[in-house]
Amino acid sequence: MNGNRIGNFIKAKRKELNLTVEEFAAAVGAPAFLVLKWEEGVPPEIDYLLPISTVLKVETKELLRGVETEPEQFETVDIVSTADTQQAAATLPETKKKEKGYYEQLREKISATDYSNYECFEPTGLNGFGDTERKFGYVICSIMLALVLLINAINLISWLSRPRALTVENCKEYLQFEVVAMNYTNNTEYEVRLTRKPKSYDVANLRVTVEITFELLPIFDEYKEEKTIIREASFSDDLLLSGETLKAYITVSHIGYDERKIKVVYAEGEM
Amino acid sequence: MDKKKKDIKLLIFLCITAVVGLINLILNGNRVLIFAYVVAMSIIPVIYFNYSLCKWENRWENRWKEKNPGTGEPSELRLSVAKIGEWIIFVIGLILALIPKI
Q1: pLDDT (tens digit, 9 = 90+) per residue, A101-117?
Q2: Which chain A residues touch B if contact means CB-CB below 8 Å?
Q3: Across the interface, do B76 and A124 touch by the CB < 8 Å criterion?
Q4: What is the pTM of this model?
């Protein structure tokens, strides 16, 4: 079966009958895109062969071959007399006389069929997007792009309007301080940590000094005279990046003191 | 504009959104989410070829289970449920791109 030949045949016959694709599709009971597919060379489905051949007024075999066959020509040879023919016809059984040819029966059946209500195969969907889906896609993508733009614009504005210098006043907004005991059983040694807070800016030429106040725990009140001890820790770095931690170590003279307060006494840096 | 052109236009728009989301994700510094984001965004071609994939899956299942397999034409419900699921994955991907730094 040659798809192209069938396609060309359908197209030629359709044009011969002055039918548009839509008219032909309606007559056959198929969607127009299927007709275009057939004409492009995709062989028609078996369900459509009879409707097509009826509408195009061709035999199904001609449709399948893609060629119109000439009606068979017989030479009339007068070898039997009319009397003989009549006699032969008379001898034929009644049923044989009435019996119609296959194509005759087929044509009658097809012309009796109402194809306007013919339920043909149609795909339930196609690749791609539906109309509602398309609208949803555009809306969701537009919202996303707008949000990304907004968030980045806010970040850019806050970066541009950031304070350029690190001072004692704004120091704790961008830096985090922590005092950790080195030894929990005999805690006279402490580690002081300075960490850049997330979402803050890189600090160049950082110089920071903090004052840590230790207070004596109430249970040791009667043993020690010094109630409060103050220690200083200094940090310096050329460039403090995100997540980077600077460390300093301090020592108190006796156990029994607890870290109470961290105060920044000096801060300098460029952001 | 015919359906195919409209579909291609939306497909391009979806791809642009996915790329913008990926850039935003990297700028946010959520590198741990990149893999999950890429997996979620690989749903875009699946959304487009939903019908073919459903049909292919039905056919395969028919051939596997039935002696006389049918056409594998998916039902409206099958197509709709698949589409909804795919769009949900796409939206989850977009949300991942918008999450501030973890």
Answers
A1: 888 888 888 888 777 66
A2: 121, 123-130, 133-134, 136-138, 140-141, 144-145, 147-148, 151-152, 198-199
A3: yes
A4: 0.53
